[in-house]
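Why do we bother with holo predictions? Because pocket geometry can differ from the apo form. Keep that in mind while you read this record for zinc ion.
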Amino acid sequence: MYVLGIETSCDETSASLVKDGSRILSNVVASSLNMHKKYGGIVPEIAFRKQLETITAVVDSAVKQARIKLKDIKIISVTKGPGLLGSLLVGISFAKAASYSLGVPLLGVNHLYAHIYSGLFNVKKPKFPFVALVVSGGHTSLFYVKDFAKIRLLGSTQDDACGESFDKVAKILGLGYPGGPLIEKLAKQGNSKKIKFSCSGTKGALDFSFSGIKTAVLYYVKKHAILPKELTADIAASFQEAVIDALIKKSVLACKLKKTGHLVVGGGVVANSRLREKLFRETKDKGINTYFPPKELCMDNAAMVAGLGYQLFRKGLSSDLSLSADFPLFT
Ligand code: KG4
Ligand code: ZN
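The structure, written out:
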């Protein structure tokens, strides 16, 4: 069964054709990221105007690359939130019109739950229930996945999202936007043991906090009139390591508390190679099987939306044409 996925929750416009929730036939992603760089973050108006301009071409190209006909599409799955209101509305409106004109069911899916699905293509899927960690620019959450339609929040960040803290620290270090890949690159030349940074404790054992460590970096930087290049690399490495350690510690604890040996991870921060290496090693040592998305599916994409939509449809779920954006950015 061919599912058309549409994702427009932030700066990406993406469309994908996925067969039976497992084979990605196409995954076209157009990003307006370059247009936001000079502002140091995403400007919602720029994002959704660009999405309005590109969505038709992106969907056309996904259908062509999949080498199928429009009439072969059996479900349309679209991100309904959380995300930016204008951006979500572009995808949802397009999906509703396409569902109506093709006469096929429509499914609105949660963006964070879709990130969980990005690690489940081309693998034998883990047995339910499992724990999932979603770490991106807007969210940092641990979930308990009983099945694809029953997902419960176990913990989330109490302040900044993890990717947001990479972005803010990169700004403090004068590196640019988005910060994650720039910090990762610089950290490779630094010594992660040089400075003792750590993430603040939280009331809930499975919650996260990243704003304290960002402030600690700021104060550390302010103490120096001039930051030598090697010290900047040491700060990047020490910050990155502390954040990674917090993500690993809480994920392992969640698996222990929920008595599961399966962890699925997703979101932009999971593109970080140091996180992938260390998480893989440390969870393996504890008998936990961790599922990672390929790097190209860590960032926002429509394949994960199509994949999750297929699973929800099989459980008997669908949306009607009153589907609207579920836009508050929750973490
Ligand atoms: O999932 P995503 O594309 O968008 C949201 O749904 O938020 O994630 C974007 C976030 C940005 O904050 C970016 O700095 C972070 O993911 N990111 C990284 C890396 N690549 C992207 N963080 C750490 N290391 C990376 N290599
Ligand atoms: Zn995302």
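The longest strand covers residues 23-31.
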